[in-house]
Specification:
By secondary structure, this protein is of the alpha/beta class. The protein contains 16 helices and 16 strands. Helix 1 packs across helix 2, helix 2 packs parallel to helix 14 and helix 14 crosses helix 15.
Amino acid sequence: MTPQAAFEVLNRIAGVAPLAMPQFDGPEAIVPTPFRVATAAAAALGYAGANAAEIWRFRGGDAQRVAVDLRAAAATLIPQYRLNGTMIRPGLPPNAATGFYQSADRRWLYLHGGFPHLAHRTFDLLNARDERLSVLEAVAKWNALALEEALAYLALSGAVVRSEGEWTRSLPGRLAVSPIVLTKVASGPPVQLLESAAPLGGLKVLDLTRVVAGPVCTEILASHGAEVLAITAERLPAAGDLELPYAAGKRRTTLDLAQPSAAETLRRLARHADVFVNSYRPGALTGLGFSPASLAHIAPGMITVSISAYGLEGPWAERRGWEETTQAATGLAAEQGAFAAARRGPKAGAQPDLIPAAVLSTVTGVLGAAGAMAAMRRRIREGGSWHVQVSLAATAAWLSSLGRIDAASVPEAWDPLAGLDQYLQSCETKDGWFEFLGPVVRMPKTPPRGGHLPDGVVSPLWASAHEEANVTEIQSAQT
């Protein structure tokens, strides 16, 4: 399927008036995988850009042609940056609780220890040490599906490697199929936006997300002019430098929502917000009063974006999921492994492998941003509060539906940033000179902006309120 055809799929499912087709440039065979990952990334980015262009037109701007280079779109799938000239590909600290392992019934699983506390609990379940051989021997004593269920019961992360057919026949696989789900949760009058120099200028976004998909979503909203306030808690394990590639253009604050006062502060912030992006496990914020329906009551017209691994319904809804475990569960890892084995030769043993790019996490984040802007268009036309749902598993189903690249055309290697100097941006940070891939969607009248990285933690206030508080404080000091 071409990027144009993939774009048309997204154009239809959101239930909004069709958007103009972007211009797509460059080859599809870029990443060492038969899956059309560059096509998926470009179509999603093009759809997000087309929505932004249409919102700006609603605000008094002129029509403009959106364009996406597939090479640049593919490069967004790799979190990387240069710090003082050194290329860094960030990630969570490695441990033996992360990787492919074979069970007693000869099935493969992908374990994901993720953060240190999850790794330690996985070692406890397996009665293993933080050594690959120890974990290999421990997993070899388990039935694969039994271990998968035990991990899920203990809120840990791991998935049996399935074929695509096995996944699509399962209930979780049948539920996670649409790349964007858009639902009206409350009625309300249409909302007209004032003229602005940027498509999302003046709109406020609350960002309660972590680790790739959610940060990608809010980074795109920030690039189109939205004010994004990212909220985390000091007690949560840090994702470290994995958050840096997606932090541009945002402000960051901390709130421990386990404290009633912090939850009330978030409620106060939500009253003035337009978009609430949440990548906590489904249901985690509902008990605190931040369900889509509750948010629509707090702030009529609110657009809530829910980002999950396996969707919000079904037996897998509350499971922890990551890029790697979702690739394993949905059949991508099995097919990528078969492709890699065939390329190595007839004597190569077949075992699962990962697509060498964070395609599910990144594209899901882009689809979340596109869905939020599609909901804004519906809010402008018909009013109401809207709920946008995206998931890694649904993105996997959409990616698989795009077809495959002929194996002979798939490159052996890939240098993501080669030839993309025009998209690189840089800024000074406390750690030195930071160079990163900026927005890759080309929009001649409202080019997306990259912005600077957050400089420390700010008070839990919107920027305008923060500025007003500073003015009041200065005036008080002068009298």
